[in-house]
Amino acid sequence: MLPVGYASLMGYTPGDLVTQQGTQVGGGVVMLRANKSARAFVPEIPELVLELEPCFVHGCQTALWGRNDLMQHFDVAITERRQQFSLTPV
């Protein structure tokens, strides 16, 4: 999920967005799903280009990546004790 303000920054217009009901940790949420995918990459791994189907949410303050986007392309490891975070392409 992305803040709704990201939609125009990513080149989407209101006509590119479809309203649908979704869920998040706090319960139900109204989302604006892009009707065309976006391409993205991690700067440190530019050869791996991801196809994403972004959803935008009013009131969302920060990008929330999860199982339906980033984790489809990477194994994610968080080691709290060492304060480390790693992405491994799958």
Structure overview:
The chain is mainly beta and 90 residues long. The protein has one helix spanning 6-9, and strands at 2-3, 17-24, 27-34, 38-42, 45-52, 55-57, 74-79, 84-89. It has one domain. The protein is 4% helix and 51% strand. The strands form three sheets. It has a four-stranded mixed β-sheet, with no helix packed on it. A hairpin with a 2-residue loop joins strand 2 (17-24) and strand 3. It is globular and about 40 Å long. The relative contact order is 0.22. The model has no long low-confidence stretch (mean pLDDT 88).
How many domains? Answer: 1
Number of helices: 1
The chain-level mean pLDDT equals: 88
**Lateral arrangement of strands in the main beta sheet:** 1-6-3-2
Strand content: over 45%
**Element-by-element helix/strand order:** EHEEEEEEE
* Major sheet details: 4 strands, mixed
Structural class label: mainly beta
Shape: globular
* Distance between the ends: 22 Å
What are the salient characteristics of this protein?
single chain, 90 residues, mainly beta, four-stranded mixed beta sheet, two-stranded antiparallel ribbon, 4% helix
SSE order and pairing:
Elements: E1 2-3, H1 6-9, E2 17-24, E3 27-34, E4 38-42, E5 45-52, E6 55-57, E7 74-79, E8 84-89
Parallel strand pairs: 1-6
Antiparallel strand pairs: 2-3, 3-6, 4-5, 7-8
Quick take:
This protein is mainly beta and 90 residues long. The chain has one domain.
